[in-house]
Amino acid sequence: MASTQLTHQNFRPIAVYGVSSRQLGTTRPTSLPLPPKGFKSRHLCIKANQNSKWAVKLSLVDQSIPPKSTVDVERLVDFLYDDLPHLFDDQGIDRTAYDEQVVFRDPITKHDTIGGYLFNISMLKILFRPDFQLHWVKQTGPFEITTRWTMVMKFMLLPWKPELIFTGTSVMGINPETGKFCSHVDFWDSIENNDYFSLDGLWDVFKQLRIYKTPDLETPKYKILKRTANYEVRRYSPFIVVETNGDKLSGSTGFNDVAGYIFGKNSTMEKIPMTTPVFTQADDAELKKVSIQIVLPVEKDMNSLPDPSQETVSLRKVEGGIVAALKFSGKPTEDIICEKERELRSSLIRDGLRPRMGCLLARYNDPGRTWSFTMRNEVLIWLEEFSLD
pTM here? Predict the structure, then answer.
């Protein structure tokens, strides 16, 4: 399978005991104001800014002039870079960095103690075998650090072991008295309502439990950078394809020629292992100029591969890059593919991304041996650029 490792929906939750949450520059203060222990109430006001992102403003009542704090936030940023990659491995996170009363919230889960927080991590390890990947850690307030991540999980209790993918941000609140984390609030990229208990969040989990059959064959390596409600953004590593001309995105013209190359119709009669998916690629806006491709195993390189025996077949290195992917099941007819391409392109433009001309269709299954409702198909569009900031 692919190596799956994250709407810039940047939320700025409450900084504990806080001051107004704001994005800081590169210079971080080493001496930060500490609100007094005693305050009577706090008022939370949430509104959308001009960029349609959420801004959170926290104002406190009855504050006196605060003393100085000795919390080293920059050190905690470095700590999270080292500690969070161990979230689901045998080492685990360092619990001494958290208050005993730590508030954890995501759209479907909540805990209020470090014991409950660690129990939740343990249950996820058993049920889902998570693969957690940390993208960045930044200070986003005087007592607030935000992280961006991807988490890929397999639900082990279901026979088909569906893959659940979540990307988003976590806002870590710091207790200015102890210098420890006292809150952890998750925001998923794939839903709008990130409050607990969110029906959006529950539906997002449920719809990922559907059956997609992915053959146990090598695929091009990629990391998932972001998953929205409509598509995934992936970073593909370079790979090599054997290709020839096709007739249409849904067609199979030319498949026997490229398959013949890996079955031994090459200059050394070498047999090369089969991979998945089979790509058909259109480079023009009308999706008419089509090639059909089979990906070659990752250990192969252009210098060691045999030459094709047919003049119409060629080898090409795909340099990799950023791709948006829309997954769907069923038989991929030409009308359906074009509809999915328009849907994906429209979503990308709406989200401020810059899709390139053309698209690829990825077909993972043998149509003669796979029920149509379990087929895994994807429409992919290369992006000009993409940033997780």
Answer: 0.83
